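Fold this sequence, please.
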Amino acid sequence: MRKIIFALPLALMLAAPAAHSGTAEVKLSEKDQAEFDKITKSRKAGEPVSCINRADQKRLTVIGDKYLVYKRSSDPETIYVNEPYGGCRSAEHNTLVTRKSTSQLCRGEIARIKDMTSGMVVGSCSFSDFVPYTKTGE
């Protein structure tokens, strides 16, 4: 009996990270979905890439807790959409901070979410592949 009492809390502790491993689907509000549809309208999704050039990014648009949309300065016809693993909660109303250790943003890199008013880090998210969306001329 003593072994069961010890084993149960241990099993629950080991199972907890799996239950919150970021695999839950992040839902968008109707407003956020409409914004994403508007941004990607008349664009075709290309093959995902693992990295994008950090210096070439003109502007970041955060859509809900689900999408990070990077607009390029060298090619305004193409945007890159990233759907961070498990979402990127609180990024829409705060600032996304990445390390500048390389000239690229890559899959697996962790971005911190910082509240610039208080200076506190309020979360983080991990980039997935970047999907290019290019204007189709429609």
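The first strand starts at residue 43 and ends at 45. Residues 6-22 have pLDDT under 50 and may be disordered.
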